Amino acid sequence: MKIGITGATGQLGRLVVDKLKERIESTDIVALVRNVEKAADLGIEARPFDYSRPQELSLALNGIEKLLLISGNEIGQRESQHANVIAAAKESGIKHIFYTSLLHADRSKLSLAPEHLATEEALKKSGISYTILRNGWYTENYTGSISGSLAAGAFIGSAGDGRISSASRLDFAEAAAIVLTSENQEGRTYELAGDHAYTLSDLAAELTAQSGKEIPYKNFSENDYAEVLKTFGVPNAFAHTIASWDACAEKGDLFDQGKELSRLLGRPTTPLAETVKETLASI
C-alpha cells in the first residue's frame, strides 16, 4: 500500500517521512512536492504536486491508496488549494485522506481556523474515508524566536498569561506516521496538543535558566506587538496576523489538556525545556 505525503520537503513533511520509514518500506512512500529536486535527499519516490495546479494533481496520485494532506502554507489560498487536492484524490481513487488541521478548529478564534474547518467539511462531503489530525501549536513556533530574544534581552509577545499546550514538530510527525499505519482510522478526529501547558513568561524563565542570561517576558497589546514586529521587517499584514494569534492564545485557543497526543504516541510529549535546549544548542 503506497502512502503519499504532500509537502514532503517541508518542516513537518520531512519528519513524517523519516518516521514512516521506521514503520514501512521506503518504496511504499511517495513524496508529493512542488520541487522534485528538493526531495532528492528523502530517499523515496518523488512526484511533482502543486496544490494550485488542479489539472496535474490526479496523475501524480496514481497508485497511491492513502494520502496525508499537509495543509498548505499560503494563508488565504488554502481552502481552494485543499479542495483541488480532495477533488483529485476522488478522481484518482484514493481510499483514505489524512488531513493536518488545527486544534479545536470548530471553535478556535485563530484566523487560521476557517480554512481548516472548510477543508474538514470538504473531506466529509467527498465520500472518501478520512481522518483529521487537529494539530496544536508547534513549540518551535515560539522557540524560533530565541536567537532574537537573546540579542534583544527580552522575549516579546501579546499572549499575556495565556496557557499554550504546544508539542514539538517531531511529536506531531510521529503521531501522523502512527495514524497513517494503523487500522480503524475512518472518520476519526484527533485533538492533538502537548501534555504540559506554559505561558510565554514560563518560556522566558526557561530560557533564562538555560542560557544564563536574564530574559524577561515583555507583554504588549496586540496592536503594539504588531508595530514592534514591523520594525523587525515583518510585513504589515503578517505582523498583525502573528499578533492576533498571540491574542487568541491569551484567550485559551492554544490550550488543551486532553493529552490525546501522548496517548497516541505511547509516551509523554516533548517537554518545553528539551526544545529550548535543542534550540540553544543550534544557535
UniProtKB/TrEMBL annotation:
Pfam families from the UniProt entry: NAD_binding_10
Coiled-coil region: none
Source organism superkingdom: Bacteria
Domain NAD(P)-binding: 7-179
Protein name: NAD(P)-dependent oxidoreductase
Source organism phylogeny: Bacteria, Pseudomonadati, Bacteroidota, Sphingobacteriia, Sphingobacteriales
